[in-house]
């Protein structure tokens, strides 16, 4: 291949594994081009924005076939080399196209080719010349005179939002003023309008001994990669430990990255951070506008925010001075992205900390089996906080046997009596049910008809408040039928309980008690969750009823009773992680009880009180609970003792997904024998076992039929060797064109 000048290798946001070569734009000097800059390129018949990942002088293909890029969009790289390294690693590990990895991980305006500067906020100020103009100087331009007066009233400068309020047609006037040199625009780097005031009631504490030990252990390793599992029961003061570590990190001029589950990132928490740390924070969560998100991202990238707090995708925030990474509630499933680029933010964080050579702290009251296994393999340091702060005691946990006795609406008499006794002491009660809506089934008593979704293998859920039935999987909905569509009968019944129906039943039982329901329906409007929490914090003698959004994070000191209305949902889940999740959820919900001086109590309703999964939980023995589960996982060759990868396929036509996965299976067997000789089917520890194709429990969803193929191996390296060979060949299968398929590495839901 002959040598030529100026080739850029470009990752394109498309489901294609290739990196594409382009000649640099004709007018460009190669010296000015660096990886991390965006470029506009011709792509097929379209124009796309790509990311330069490498600048070279030889091409992979003959140069006459290479096109010129149209335009380099940036003067400087928008992401640092470290980010590119992380993206490359993630693309390789998750077997996902690099272009999609990069473009799904940067703020949307940058994806669409917007210039950084255009997205900055500006502060408009009077210039010295402008200050000298008075309204008498402008008899013919009353609008300009008025705007100058407005500026004089705001000597510190005016933001766009203020100008919008001042006059809807402010732009034209402002343009005249800037052209005349009377007003200037300054890029402003102050944080976007703060979403929270500092929490003034918060005082830093003297750490107790276990807290101090934890802080010291981490701070002894600030200059190198070292992973820690901070295993601290609910209410043991983990957040305080994070804050003290961050203090030390920022005093060395470094930045901290804190990841929190979506539900955990509350204004309460942000206020606590703001008050304690007193430095600019960049906050990244899904409720931000594109512009706010970009702003926070730029603050972090440019080193103007010393602390970045965010949910899952914040793991990709570039930091010039990384000092520590903290993952709160590390066991939380929301750290795994469930569509598109299916990364696990916790696992990427560990990789990132290794690259940046900094410590990482994974905190949880109920750590994942993966992290506990890493502790037992001495890959992570273990930090224990096993007492609650102050006088608070762990609540007593009891089972309520639902097989005996009469109960209505899934509320046992024993539970009702206990609720009453706690309310009589002016305390709060929290009831947990992971099912929103009124009832999960609507059926006809006469002919047995059940309201099913037309597009999914699922029941339509009745929502009384909206007077509709809805599918929670595809969002199909209609008004509640008044007669049976099958037999015309009028005897339609709601079967089973959702939060709405329990609320109704409780209100009948406790007529003078305020019941506050927390679920996706009651918190849909922005700020409504906060409003509800305020009512709880101000109140006494209330019943809080909610789905898992109430299970974690919140510090609600007046709760003394927690009731878990249906624990059996978790016992027989289709996924092998179902019991682990149930245990975590029970202990997290239990953690809401008795957090202050009042002792707490937890009641769990179940039809299976003898189920062994409960035994250890009743004494808060999470260690015992997980030890048993780990044994089972080892016997079953399941994570953390094996690595999994799951191919999913779907199509409108039932036969295509299975046919495609059969081809993948075939291909995998061939490659497997090439790699390791014959007998690819057996489970021989270092080989890859292929399970499927099978149909998942819900075969049809949103009008499409689904199938899956599971790959399992005792050695992660083997699984990846096979996938490295397999994935590039899949696009060439003719059956691949008839389906939508995806590959999920370390799937959190194996169906
Ligand atoms: P966790 O995150 O482990 O559930 P938190 O960090 O929220 O626990 O702490 C529980 C409560 O105890 C909070 O109200 C916190 O302000 C308080 N707290 C934490 N550490 C101390 C301490 N050393 N002394 C007094 N109160 C503390
Ligand atoms: Zn009927
Ligand atoms: Zn549906």
What do these coordinates show?
Strands 11-12-10-13-14-9-15 form a seven-stranded parallel sheet, with helices on both faces. A six-stranded parallel sheet has the order 16-26-25-17-24-23, with helices on both faces. The two termini are 48 Å apart. It has five domains: 2-111, PriA, 3(prime) DNA-binding domain (GIY-YIG endonuclease, 3-Layer(aba) Sandwich), CATH 3.40.1440; 121-188, no CATH class; 209-385, P-loop containing nucleotide triphosphate hydrolases (Rossmann fold), CATH 3.40.50.300; 396-439 and 496-621, P-loop containing nucleotide triphosphate hydrolases (Rossmann fold, 3-Layer(aba) Sandwich), CATH 3.40.50.300; 643-745, ACT domain (Alpha-Beta Plaits), CATH 3.30.70. 32% of the residues lie in helices and 22% in strands. Residues 190-195 have low confidence and may be disordered. Helix 9 packs parallel to helix 10 (238-251) and helix 19 (578-590) runs antiparallel to helix 21 (622-635). The chain is built from 23 helices and 31 strands. The chain binds adenosine-5'-diphosphate and zinc ion (2 copies).
């Amino acid at each position: 291949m002959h040598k030529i000048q100026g080739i850029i290798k470009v990752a394109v946001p498309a489901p294609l594994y290739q990196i594409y070569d382009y000649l640099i734009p004709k007018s460009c000097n190669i010296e000015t081009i660096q990886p991390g800059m965006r470029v506009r390129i011709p792509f097929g018949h379209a124009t796309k924005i790509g990311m330069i990942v490498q600048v070279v002088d030889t091409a992979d293909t003959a140069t006459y076939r290479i096109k010129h890029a149209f335009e380099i969009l940036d003067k400087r790289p928008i992401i640092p080399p470290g980010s590119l390294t992380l993206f490359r690693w993630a693309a390789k590990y998750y077997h996902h196209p690099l272009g999609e990895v990069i473009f799904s991980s940067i703020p949307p305006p940058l994806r669409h080719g917007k210039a950084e500067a255009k997205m900055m906020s500006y502060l408009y100020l009077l210039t010295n010349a402008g200050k000298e103009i008075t309204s008498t100087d402008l008899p013919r331009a009353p609008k300009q005179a008025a705007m100058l007066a407005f500026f004089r009233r705001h000597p510190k400068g005016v933001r766009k939002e203020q100008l919008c309020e001042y006059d809807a047609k402010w732009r034209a006037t402002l343009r005249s003023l800037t052209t005349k040199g009377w007003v200037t625009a300054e890029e402003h780097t102050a944080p976007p309008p703060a979403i929270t005031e500092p929490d003034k009631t918060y005082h830093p504490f003297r750490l107790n001994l276990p807290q101090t030990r934890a802080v010291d252990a981490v701070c002894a390793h600030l200059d190198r990669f070292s992973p820690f599992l901070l295993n601290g029961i609910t209410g043991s003061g983990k957040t305080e430990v994070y804050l003290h570590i961050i203090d030390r990190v920022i005093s060395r001029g470094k930045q901290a990255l804190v990841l929190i589950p979506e539900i955990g990132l509350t204004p309460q928490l942000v206020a606590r951070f703001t008050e304690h740390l007193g430095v600019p924070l960049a906050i990244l969560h899904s409720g931000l506008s594109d512009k706010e998100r970009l702003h926070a991202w730029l603050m972090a990238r440019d080193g103007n925010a010393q602390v970045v707090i965010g949910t899952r995708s914040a793991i990709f925030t570039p930091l010039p001075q990384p000092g520590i990474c903290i993952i709160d509630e590390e066991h939380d499933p929301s750290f795994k992205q469930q569509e598109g680029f299916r990364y696990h933010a916790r696992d990427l964080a560990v990789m990132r900390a290794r690259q940046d050579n900094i410590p990482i702290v994974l905190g949880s009251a109920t750590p994942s089996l993966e992290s506990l296994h890493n502790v037992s393999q001495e890959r992570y340091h273990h930090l224990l906080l096993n007492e609650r702060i102050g006088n608070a005691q762990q609540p007593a946990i009891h089972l309520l046997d639902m097989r005996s006795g009469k109960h209505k609406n899934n509320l046992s008499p024993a539970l009702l009596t206990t609720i009453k006794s706690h309310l009589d002491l002016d305390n709060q009660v929290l009831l947990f049910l992971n099912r929103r809506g009124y009832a999960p089934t609507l059926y006809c008593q006469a002919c047995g008809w059940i309201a099913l979704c037309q597009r999914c293998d699922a029941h339509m859920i009745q929502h009384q408040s909206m007077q509709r039935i809805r599918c929670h999987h595809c969002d199909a909905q209609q008004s509640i039928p008044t007669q049976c569509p099958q037999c015309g009968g009028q005897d339609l019944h709601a079967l089973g309980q959702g939060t709405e129906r329990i609320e109704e039943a409780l209100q009948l039982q406790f007529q003078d008690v305020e019941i506050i329901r927390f679920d996706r329906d009651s918190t849909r409007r922005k700020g409504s969750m906060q409003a509800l929490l305020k009512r709880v914090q101000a109140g006494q003698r209330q019943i809080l009823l909610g789905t898992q959004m109430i299970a974690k994070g919140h510090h609600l000191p007046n709760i003394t009773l927690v009731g878990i209305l249906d624990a059996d949902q978790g016992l027989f889940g289709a996924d092998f992680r179902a019991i682990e999740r149930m245990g975590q959820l029970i202990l997290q919900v239990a953690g809401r009880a008795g957090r202050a001086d009042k002792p707490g109590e937890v009641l769990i309703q179940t039809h299976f009180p003898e189920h062994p999964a409960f035994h250890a939980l009743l004494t808060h023995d999470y260690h015992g609970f997980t030890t048993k589960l780990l044994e089972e996982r080892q016997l079953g060759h399941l994570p953390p003792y094996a690595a999994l990868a799951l191919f999913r396929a779907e199509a409108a036509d039932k036969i295509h997904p299975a046919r495609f996965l059969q081809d993948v299976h075939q291909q995998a067997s061939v490659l497997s024998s090439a790699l390791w000789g014959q007998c690819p089917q057996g489970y021989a520890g270092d080989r890859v076992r292929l399970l499927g194709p099978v149909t998942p429990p819900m075969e049809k969803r949103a009008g499409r039929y689904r199938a899956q193929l599971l790959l399992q191996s005792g050695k992660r390296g083997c699984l990846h060797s096979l996938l490295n060979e397999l994935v590039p060949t899949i696009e060439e299968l003719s059956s691949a064109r008839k389906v939508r398929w995806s590959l999920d590495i370390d799937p959190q839901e194996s169906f």
